[in-house]
Amino acid sequence: MSWKLVRRLGSRDRGGYLGLEFASIYGQFGSQVTVLEAAPKIFGLVDDDVAAVAEGILVDEGIEIVVGANVTEVRDGETTATVVYEKDGRQHTLEADAILAATGRAPATGGLALEAAGVRTTKRGAVEVDERLRTSQPHIFALGDVNGGPQFTYISLDDSRIVLDQLIGEGKRSTADRVAIPHTVFITPPLATVGLTEAQARAAGHRMKIASQPVAEIVAMPRAYIVEDSRGVMKFVIDAETDEILGAALLSVDAQELINTVALAMRHGIRAAELRDAVYNHPTSTEAFNDVLATIVRADT
C-alpha cells in the first residue's frame, strides 16, 4: 500500500511529530510512505547532528521525505487519491492509496460560548490561564490540551495535580514547577529529548562540553545488541563550568525510558559525572551512560 503523509510541524507543537511516528509505523508494516513536510527540515526541535541520524534511519527504512512541500490540493479518485504540492516553485503530484493528514491540533473551544462566562481565550482559541491554571474567572480552571500548554498526556495529568492542590491542598503547585520535562518521538528506535539543545545552550551563553556517541559504538550497552537494534546516537549538553546537565537527546532502544532518568537527574541537580560513574544493572540500556558521558567530543575553552 502507498501512503502519503501530509504534515506540518508547528513551532510550539511537538505533537506534530505524530506524523513521523505514523510514517515509521506504516513503513514497518511494509507500506510505501512519502512524507510531505512544509518546513525546511524534519526533526526541527533537535540539533542538526541528531536530526540527521534520525532522518537517516527513516530514509534507510524506505520512507521518502520531501521538505519544503506546500500541499495545494487533494483529489479523490475511485480507488486512489492524488496530492498536489508545490516545491521550489514547481508543481508536483503524488498518487496514493491512503492519505494521513497530520497537520496539528487546536483547542476545540469555538462552540463553548466562553465569552458569555467571561473566560478569555488566546488567538489560537486556547483558554487563557495563569501558572496555577486559573482562567480569567478565578473560580474556573482549564487543564489539559484546551489551555494551550504542551499537548501531552503526562502534562494533562500534572495539570490535574496543580488544580487539585489549589482546591484541597496547600496551593503551592504551579506550572512554574515543571522543569526538565522529557519528550519522546516514538519512531523506531525512539528519539527522546529533555532540556536544552546545543544550539539553545549556546544562545543562552553557556560554556559547554558535549558528550556523544553513536549507539553502535557504545560498548557498555549490551541491550542494543540483545534486541538487535544498535542504530541511533546519544548526546548530552553539559555546562563546562558546573558539570550541570543542560540537556540530552537519546535516539536509541529504550530511549523513552532512559530519558526519565536523565530528567530526574536534572531536576535534582545530579551532575554529569555522578550519572557517568553510577553503577547500573546489567544488561540494560542505562549502562550506556557510563560510556557516553565519558566521551567528550568537544568542549568550549
Description:
This protein has helices at 18-28, 48-60, 153-168, 198-203, 222-226, 255-267, 272-277, 288-292, and strands at 2-7, 32-37, 64-67, 70-76, 81-87, 90-96, 98-102, 183-185, 191-195, 208-214, 233-239, 245-251, 296-299. It is an alpha+beta fold. The strands form 3 sheets. It has a 6-stranded antiparallel beta sheet with strand order 8-9-12-11-10-13, with helices on both faces. Strands 3-2-1-7 form a 4-stranded parallel beta sheet, covered by helices on one side. A 3-stranded antiparallel beta sheet has the order 4-5-6, with no helix packed on it.
What labels describe this entry?
8 helices; 25% strand; alpha+beta; 301 residues; 13 strands; 4-stranded parallel beta sheet
